């Protein structure tokens, strides 16, 4: 039996040396190492041997098998190397061809929109001020005149990071940060950035989205300054001569509060699906900074006044470009992104 084993091993090794293709290599593998291969058969026949010969033969057969497996792997590697060399030297791969060009990317529609907004407000003297996306409960709510248990907190569905820490639900907490940094100077800033809400995602709502907040603090700042600023912004951003309207509203951090609407740019006020037949589109929440908020920022409300506003970014972009699903902004579909 041992002699037979040596013979099979010898034969296998010499035939492996002349194998020249992957196909033949596989045939070789099946013949010697496969399920019904010669060596496998021999290992299976250990049971037929007298008991005292079994251990020595079993060991020898296993060794032979391992040796052949190694030889097989070496030959496979060799063949692959040869193939690659042959291809490189003049076969199917021309290494002198230029590579496939990777085209330059371009700015995301959201970034483009943000930059348009920055440019318009820069012309009106507003600086960009960035604040963190992870905020304390105190800044996101408390210092904006919403102590714990204030029912107005229900207007913002919130992701909690840990107790007392939230993913900011709006850019308004940046107002407090800006005031505390600039006090006692006058302020004119916009605060752009990502906000998060625990929302059911749909064509109209995402759980992440951008806002741009505006804040002006100074002496004798009035509602007319706010209206003028929003009007100028709307005219330049949306274009056209559509009318603007201000409605009384409620936000805990402004008093009085308003919402600004622009005449629907799609139907020019006649009423359509986008404006829900009202002829108007909401563009911003706004108001005069609440005295408590001014005080929390370090300003004496008997001497200082200010206005603030907050607007979205994706929704205005949707209106401008006729995009009907906010989820496209985060879907990473190049067919969508390349259009802008
Ligand atoms: N923070 C508000 C929101 O996310 C938007 C807003 C309303 C911002 C009025 C303001 C403001 O600065 O004055 O719904």
Q: Which residues form runs of ≥5 with pLDDT under 50?
A: none
CATH topology of the largest domain: BirA Bifunctional Protein, domain 2
Order of helices and strands: HHHHHEEHEEHEEHEEEHEHH
Query: What is the name of the CATH class of the largest domain?
Result: Alpha Beta
Question: Architecture of the largest domain, according to CATH?
Answer: 2-Layer Sandwich
CATH superfamily of the largest domain: Bira Bifunctional Protein, Domain 2
Unique bound compounds: 3,4-dihydroxyphenylalanine
- The N- and C-terminal alpha carbons lie at a distance of 77 Å
Mean model confidence by pLDDT: 92
Fraction of residues in H or I helices: 25-40%
Shape: elongated
Counted up, domains total 2
Strand content: 15-25%
Please tally the β strands and state the result. 10
What's the alpha carbon Rg, rounded to whole Å? 37 Å
How many DSSP helices? 11
Sheet with most strands: strand arrangement: 1-5-6-10-9-8-7
Write a structural description.
- The structure is a single chain.
- This protein is an alpha+beta fold and 340 residues long.
- The protein has two domains: 2-90; 109-337, Bira Bifunctional Protein, Domain 2 (BirA Bifunctional Protein, domain 2, 2-Layer Sandwich), CATH 3.30.930.10.
- The chain has helices spanning 2-17, 22-32, 38-44, 54-90, 109-123, 137-140, 173-182, 223-238, 291-296, 314-321, 334-337, and strands at 127-128, 134-136, 160-162, 165-167, 187-196, 208-218, 244-251, 254-263, 280-289, 305-312.
- A seven-stranded mixed beta sheet has the order 1-5-6-10-9-8-7. A three-stranded antiparallel beta sheet has the order 2-4-3.
- Helix 3 (38-44) runs antiparallel to helix 4.
- 3,4-dihydroxyphenylalanine (DAH) binds at residues 170, 172, 213, 251, 254, 285-287, 308-310.
């Amino acid at each position: 039996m041992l002699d037979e084993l040596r013979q099979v091993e010898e034969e296998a090794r010499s035939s492996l040396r002349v194998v020249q293709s992957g196909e033949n290599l596989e045939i070789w593998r099946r013949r010697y190492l496969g399920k019904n291969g010669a060596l496998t058969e021999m290992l299976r026949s250990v049971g037929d041997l007298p008991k005292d010969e079994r251990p020595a033969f079993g060991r020898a057969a296993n060794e032979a098998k391992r040796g052949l497996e190694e030889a097989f792997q070496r030959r496979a590697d060799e063949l692959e190397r040869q193939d690659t060399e042959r291809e490189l030297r003049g076969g199917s791969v021309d290494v002198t061809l230029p590579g496939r060009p990777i085209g330059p990317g371009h700015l995301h529609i959201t970034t483009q929109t943000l930059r348009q907004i920055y440019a318009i407000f820069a012309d009106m003297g507003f600086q960009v001020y960035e604040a963190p996306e992870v905020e304390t409960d105190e800044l996101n709510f408390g210092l904006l005149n919403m102590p714990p248990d204030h029912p107005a907190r229900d207007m913002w569905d919130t992701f909690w990071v840990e107790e007392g820490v939230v993913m900011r639900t709006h850019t308004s907490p940046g107002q407090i940060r800006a005031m505390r940094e600039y006090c006692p100077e006058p302020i004119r800033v916009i605060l752009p950035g990502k906000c998060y809400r625990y929302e059911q995602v749909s064509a109209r709502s995402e759980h992440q989205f951008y806002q741009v907040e505006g804040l002006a603090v100074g002496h004798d700042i009035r509602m007319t300054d706010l209206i003028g600023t929003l009007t100028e912004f709307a005219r330049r951003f949306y274009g056209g001569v559509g009318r603007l309207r201000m409605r009384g509203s409620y936000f805990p951090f402004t008093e009085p509060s308003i919402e600004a609407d622009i005449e629907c740019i799609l139907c020019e006020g006649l009423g359509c699906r986008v404006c829900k037949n009202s002829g108007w589109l909401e563009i911003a929440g706004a108001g005069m900074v609440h005295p408590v908020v001014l005080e929390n920022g370090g300003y004496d409300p008997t001497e200082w006044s200010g206005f603030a506003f907050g607007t979205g970014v994706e929704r205005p972009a949707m209106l401008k470009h006729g995009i009907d699903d906010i989820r496209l902004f985060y879907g990473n579909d190049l067919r969508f992104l390349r259009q802008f």
